[in-house]
Amino acid sequence: MSTAVVFIGGHPPHPGVVAHLPAQRWVVAADSGYDHAVALGVHVDLVVGDLDSVSAEGLARMERDGTPVERHPTDKDFTDTELALRAALRHDVSHLVVVSCVGDRLDHSFAALSSLADPSLAGIAVEAWWGGAHVDVVRGPGTRLIAGRVGETVSLLPVDGAAMGVVASGVQYALHGETLSATASRGVSNVFVDSELNLHVERGALLVIKPEAL
User: Fold this and answer.
1) Confidence class of residue 111 from pLDDT cuts 50, 70 and 90?
2) Whether 105 and 124 share a structural domain
3) Which of 35, 60, 112, 187 has the fewest CB atoms within 10 Å, i.e. is most exposed?
C-alpha cells in the first residue's frame, strides 16, 4: 500500500504522532507544515503552497536540502491543505495520513477537516492526527473496524450531508441502520465497550473521531 503523509499548518502537532506514522511514506508539507515535519525529524519530499507562513529558517533549509517546491500564488482558489491533498493524489496513493493540530483559525480547521471527506478521495483510506485526536474517514457503502480502548470516547460526525444506514456495534450506544444528520449531535460522545468499533455506512461519509487517542 502506497502511503502519503500530509503535514499542514496551524499549531505544532502532538509529538507522539511520529510513533504512529507508517515507516514507508511519501511526505508532502503544506506551507508551514514543513516546519512542523522538520521539528519532528520527518523528511519532507515535497512542499506545496504560497509559502506565506513557513519560517525563514524553513525556507533556507528547503533550498539547502534541495527539497522540491510547488509554489502557488497567494490569490488562489484552494487552500494550501487542498493543494497538498491534490499533490498526494497525483502520487497515486492508496493510504493518506494528514497531520495537524487545532489551530487559531476556526475556519481553516473546519475547511481542513471537511476536505478529508472530499469525493476525490473516495477509494483511498484516509485518516488524520489532529493534535491528540485521531480521525478516520468512513464512506458508504463501506464497513470498517476501528480499534479503541474500553471506556474511550468516540464520535461519529457526518460530513458532506447526512450519513445513512449507519450500523455501529462495540460501543455503548449501538446504532442499527440509522441516519445521522449533519446538523444534529446524535453521534457525539459514544463510548467503546469493546476493543473494536464495528462500523458500517450505507450512504454518505462519517468522520470517526477519537478525541483522546494520544
Assistant:
1) confident
2) yes
3) 60
